[in-house]
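Chapter review. Work through the record for MazG-like protein before attempting the end-of-chapter questions.
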Amino acid sequence: MDLNQVSTKSMKIRNAYHNLEEKYHGRKWTVLEDGLALSTDVGLINRLLMDQAKIWPDKLQDNYNLEYKLGEVVWWLAVISEKNNINLNEAVENFINKKYTDFDIK
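C-alpha cells for MazG-like protein:
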C-alpha cells in the first residue's frame, strides 16, 4: 500500500470514527482535537521509549511548523519501526485493514 492509498483509506476510517463521535458526543471532532489525539498517541510512544531508556530530553527543537512536524513524526515512526524490526509499510497496512474490518468499510 503506498502513502496515497494510506491517506485515502485513513480518511474512510476517520469518517467511521466521526460517526462514533456524533453518536457519543453529538458532534465530530475538530482538526484541533485530531491533533490532540495524535500528540497524545505520540506522547505515549515517547514516554514508553524514554522510560525504557531511562532518559528525558534536555531541550526542544525550534522547528514547529505543521508540515515539518508531520514529516518528523513519520520519520520517527520509520526509525522506531526499523530499530524494532517492524516493517512500517506492513504495520500501516495491517492497521488500515483492521480498521476496515472493524468498521465494515467496503
